From TrEMBL:
Protein name as annotated: Rrf2 family transcriptional regulator
UniProt source species: Croceibacterium salegens
Domain of life: Bacteria
Molecular function in Gene Ontology: DNA-binding transcription factor activity
Gene3D superfamilies xref list: Winged helix-like DNA-binding domain superfamily/Winged helix DNA-binding domain
GO annotation, cellular component aspect: cytosol
Length: 152
C-alpha cells in the first residue's frame, strides 16, 4: 500500500502547520489570539508549490482539521490541538475511509471472486487494524524534527 502524493503532501503540510502553530489550539494567555501562518509560508517551508498547498488546505479545511481566518491578522491554524489530530485523520481527509480493498464497501460488487471469497469477511478487521495503527500516530509526533524510534 502506498499513499497518494496528495495524502503525503497533506501530512507534510499539517506537520509544518503544527510546527508554526503548535499551540494554535491554545489561546495566547496575554492576547487571547491563536498562532497562524499562511499557505505561502507553508509552501516556502515545505518546498511544495503554492497551488498544491492551497488544494491541500482546502481538503483539510473541509475535514475540519484546520481553519482559515480571514482579515487582518488572519491565516491558517489548526482546528484542534495537534495532539488530537492523527495520521489517520489526515489520510482520511484526502483519501477517504481507510480500506485496503473495495469489497468491504457497501454496494460494491466489482470483484470477480465475490461470492466465493473466504477472505472477504476478514477485510473489515484488517482495515480497522490499519486505521488503528495510523490513529496511534499524533500530529505532534509527525511535527518533531527528529523521528521517534519505532518499538521493536
Amino acid at each position: 500500500m502506498r499513499l497518494s502524493s496528495m495524502a503525503d503532501y497533506a501530512v507534510v503540510t499539517m506537520s509544518a502547520l503544527a510546527r508554526h502553530c503548535g499551540s494554535a489550539s491554545l489561546a495566547d494567555a496575554a492576547t487571547g489570539k491563536r498562532a497562524r501562518t499562511s499557505a505561502t509560508e507553508l509552501a516556502a517551508e515545505t518546498g511544495l508549490p503554492l497551488p498544491t498547498v492551497q488544494k491541500v488546505v482546502s481538503l483539510l479545511s473541509k475535514a475540519h482539521l484546520l481553519r482559515s481566518v480571514r482579515g487582518a491578522g488572519g491565516g491558517l491554524q489548526l482546528a484542534r490541538p495537534a495532539a488530537a489530530i492523527t495520521l489517520a485523520d489526515i489520510v482520511e481527509a484526502v483519501e477517504g475511509p481507510i480500506a485496503l480493498t473495495s469489497c468491504v464497501e457497501a454496494g460494491r460488487h466489482d470483484c470477480a471472486l465475490e461470492g466465493n471469497c473466504n477472505v472477504q469477511p476478514h477485510w473489515g478487521l484488517v482495515n480497522e487494524t490499519m486505521r488503528g495503527a495510523l490513529a496511534g500516530i499524533p500530529l505532534t509526533q509527525l511535527a518533531e524534527r527528529q523521528p521517534v524510534e519505532a518499538a521493536q
